[in-house]
Amino acid sequence: MLEMTKQAKAQYIATAFLIAVAVWLGTFVGAAL
């Protein structure tokens, strides 16, 4: 089970990316306010 499928890896990367974007937007909006 150590080997991740391409779909699982892509989903993990997409989730991490969305979280990073959400944090960046939150920081940007917080700084703007």
Short description:
Helix content is 82%, strand content 0%.
Structural account:
- The protein is mainly α and 33 residues long.
- Helices cover 82% and strands 0% of the residues.
- The chain contains one helix and no strands.
Layout of strands and helices, then pairs:
Elements: H1 6-32
Transmembrane segments: 12-32
Keywords: Membrane, Transmembrane, Transmembrane helix
The strand count comes to 0
Structural class: mainly alpha
Let me know the average pLDDT. 91
The SSE string, one letter per element, is H
End-to-end distance: 46 Å
Low confidence ranges: none
Note the main attributes of this structure.
single chain; mainly alpha; about 35 residues
